[in-house]
Each structure stands twice: as C-alpha cells, then as structure tokens.
Specification:
- The chain is mainly α and 207 residues long.
- Helices cover 69% and strands 0% of the residues.
- It folds into 2 domains: 3-61, no CATH class; 64-196, Tetracycline Repressor, domain 2.
- It has helices at residues 8-14, 21-35, 42-49, 53-60, 63-84, 92-106, 108-116, 118-126, 132-149, 159-174, 176-179, 186-196.
- Helix 5 packs across helix 6 (92-106) and helix 10 runs antiparallel to helix 12.
- The longest helix is centred in the middle third of the chain and has 22 residues, at 63-84.
- The radius of gyration is 19 Å and the shape is globular.
- The mean pLDDT is 90.
C-alpha cells in the first residue's frame, strides 16, 4: 500500500504521521478486545471511544484492515521479544519460528478468532486479501537468510523456497482445526520446523 493510500492508523504505526491519540486509542482498544476473546465490533468500538462510525473508519480503515494491524502487531511484538533473548548460537531461525508458532497457537484471542471467524482469519492471514502474508514471508525470510549467510543453517534450498515451505507449514499447524478438525499441537509443529531448519553441526576440534 502506497503511503498516500495508507490509513491514518497505518501511518501512525509506521511513524509516518504525527501521533494522534484518538486513532491509537482505537487501535489499542480493539487489540484489547481481540486479546480478551471479544469480537472486534466496529459499532461497539466507536461507542466505547465516543466517536461515530465514520470517524472510526476514517482512522483505521475497514474492519479487515484493523484486524490485520492487530494481528501483525502481535506477531511482530512476539518476534522482537524472541530476538531480544537470542543467544547467537546456531538454530536461531528455528527457535524464533518455534516461539512464534507456540505464541500464536497458545493465544486465547487468536483461538477465539479462528473458531468464530475461521474463513475471515484464513482470508486475512493466508491470502493477498491483506498484507499480513507478505509481512510474514518477509519476516521468516529475514530469519532464514540470516542463518544461511552466517553458515548456521544446514540446507540445500535457497532462502526464498525454504521461506515459502516454512510459512505453509506454520499455517497448516496453526489452522489445522479448520482443515482437519484436529487440535493444534505446538510440539508437533516444532518438531517439523526443527527438522527443516537444522543447524550446522559444531566443528570437531579433536582427532
């Protein structure tokens, strides 16, 4: 989305516009609703903020756009937290991706969103209907490319192909309830990611 087409909320979150408390309040309130397992209802949100719906839509764009920003903010915040605690040892990409999977699967608000609005969740998070998918691909590619460039990842695949496969696997395990009816299992997902993103074995120092 070009800067001229970005919503006021997207401009505020990216730092491209001066802070306007009301737009950020709308985002913060909506995120609290989401995390609390509530449906992000634009009418309820506008009433809580004491503004009309037209003003709310002008601030944040459509409900789909607002949900996308909420979902990405949670993903990005989790990734940043995991990267802050990184040890620098081989296996960085696998550890961060495993942590992201566990955070998403274990998030009560996300679970409620998938259960109540599964079709919308899939459309926003796994298709070009929003830019969430592009952002996630970019994040995972950055993690994988870093490990490849630093000789920490054992793979014969280029970063682009490995990124695509990893993101598809992440989605399969996160949305497995919608696909097969099974309960998401972060341990099972973690084992698959670890097998794909194997760190380079430490060099032998002895004879």
């Amino acid at each position: 989305m070009a800067p001229s087409e970005a919503t006021p909320l997207q401009q505020l979150l990216s730092g491209a516009a001066p802070s306007r408390r009301t737009a950020l309040d709308a985002f913060s309130r909506a995120r609290r609703m989401f995390l609390g397992g509530q449906r992000v209802d634009m009418g309820v949100l506008a009433r809580d903020l004491g503004v009309n719906r037209a003003t709310l839509y002008r601030w944040v764009g459509s409900r789909d756009q607002l949900l996308t920003e909420i979902l990405w903010s949670l993903m990005r915040r989790t990734a940043d937290r995991l990267l802050e605690t990184d040890t620098g040892d081989p296996g960085r990409a696998a550890r961060v991706i495993d942590g992201l999977l566990r955070a998403v699967i274990g998030n009560a608000g996300m679970g409620q969103f998938i259960e109540a609005e599964g079709d919308l969740a899939l459309r926003l998070l796994t298709t070009k209907a929003s830019d969430f998918q592009a952002r996630l691909l970019d994040l995972i590619h950055t993690l994988i490319a870093h490990d490849i460039e630093h000789g920490q990842l054992c793979t014969e695949l280029p970063a682009e192909d490995l990124t695509f496969v990893v993101v598809r696997i992440m989605e399969s395990y996160i949305y497995i309830g919608l696909i097969t009816g099974e309960r998401p299992d972060p341990d099972r997902a973690g084992r698959v990611i670890a097998a794909l993103l194997r760190p380079v074995p430490p060099a032998r120092t002895g004879p």
